[in-house]
Amino acid sequence: MAKFNKIQVLNAMASTGMVPVFYHKDVEVAKNVVKACYDGGVRAFEFTNRGDFAQDVFAELVKWAAKECPEMIMGIGSIVDPGTAALYIQLGANFVVGPLFNPEIAKICNRRLIPYTPGCGSVSEIGFAQELGCDLCKVFPAGNVGGPSFVKNVKAPMPWSMLMVTGGVEPTKENLTAWIKAGVTCVGMGSNLFPKEVVDAQDWGWIVAKCQEAFGYIAEARK
Prior knowledge:
Elements: H1 6-16, E1 18-22, H2 27-39, E2 44-48, H3 54-68, E3 73-77, H4 82-90, E4 96-97, H5 103-111, E5 116-117, E6 119-120, H6 123-131, E7 136-139, H7 142-145, H8 147-155, E8 162-166, H9 173-182, E9 186-189, H10 196-200, H11 204-221
Parallel strand pairs: 1-2, 1-9, 2-3, 4-5, 6-7, 7-8, 8-9
Helix pairs in contact: 2-3, 2-11, 4-5, 8-9, 9-11
């Protein structure tokens, strides 16, 4: 059962401006990454359904985060079918993200007032997703679809659109400034925020600092 309601989830994503995207088969590693992000200012975290028994890792992670990171909103990513969405909602997912748009997932999520952020690669896909109640749509893969100019050009005729970009997002001033100035609601960031060598070395302080640095660039670009 979701701990946070739909409005709280969307507000957290919009106000912070960044949602980390991460998967690891070792729940202890995942806990350390979530805690590092939390200490760095993150309040919405997307764990991805990308490995065997990922649901078991997520279930334990959600219970742990409720105690150790009480303001962290835990969501699930890489969801492509309604059955898997329902499974993770039962395990406490506060939001569902996918690489593609599946109308059947929207029904599952809407029934429980869980935000569904589908991956969209065209203006029409964004429009269809909005018609089915997807408040926040994910432009994916953002760097390949058209970059910041795509976001800017979509928002010109559809200014109400709330867009999250994932793929081609980097924790640099130049990159984040371009996306924010284009009009994104938030960015999703994975490997660039969690380099394999940093995770392997268990350098959690590096992740804390990188999150803080990214938030600084986002805040500056929003002025």
